[in-house]
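Entry 14. Structure prediction run on the chain below.
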Amino acid sequence: MTRGLILLVLLLIPWIPIGDPIHYVLRLATMLMLYMVLALGLNVVTGFIGYLDLGYVGFYAIGAYTSALLSGYNDIPYLIVFFVVILHGCLWGILRGIPTLGLTGDYFAIVTFGFSELIVLIIRNEVWLTRGPMGITGIKGPSMFGYTLSRDWEFFYLILFILTLAIVIIKRMENSRIGRAMAAIRDDEVAAEACGIDARRYKMLAFALSASFGAAAGSFYAHWLGVAHPDMFHFWESILILCIIIIGGMGSVSGIILGALVLIPTTELLRAALLALSQWGTSAGITFISPDIVNARYLIFGIILVLMMRLRPDGLKR
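Output returned:
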């Protein structure tokens, strides 16, 4: 009953009669659900099998550029592009997983960080394919059944559908034999293998599934903004997604949704407040308040993250 009511409210959001601000509300809600999809994908590795992944933004970038190249240059229908992007994400998840199967802890985190940085470097330098620092512009909206999405409410419904599908997949997996096997690996990998669980197989499945979620989100992001650029995929994005999981509660679907509801609007509010402060400081001639103060929100999130790990390590939901 509660879930049906929440879904009904979400479906009615684009029709709230608040005039021009509805465009801002829709874009913020769309961004919020996009990060929920990303956090659900990262949670498969970080929450379900307990591996710290610092390079998730790499799959985000792979999905965005794959979709941009297929749709922008070849006019392939979006449904086909979307499935190709998912398969491409799975492939890269497996390719990254093969050399990292024997790694744990800090070593795994370092390798994943290096992977994402390598992907961004390739995107920035392989001009013949990705146009490098110029990025790919003019990406059309998703085209389905002869209709091209272009308005805010259309993208809102598309990401709502993707998010709903992601939640259904994750919940069914969590309550299945696969989810229980992953939980056993997270709690004690040696004991899980002693009980007959093929840890390598389930870890590889987690890597592939997680990567496919990131790629799917990247595909949507590229079509929504109409551009794919290397600067869109900074390391900070991986940290922000990880913060959502930690604040909400690792391994909890509802916790991730709660974490995104807390963190993403807070990010937007802090950005707007610090931007207004920097503009006031410039007009008032106060030299120590520069436009760079907007980046202070990263420091604030660092403090929030430290406090969460210290005072509520299991997240808000637990």
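The chain has two domains: 23-232, 234-318.
Filed with the rest of this week's runs.
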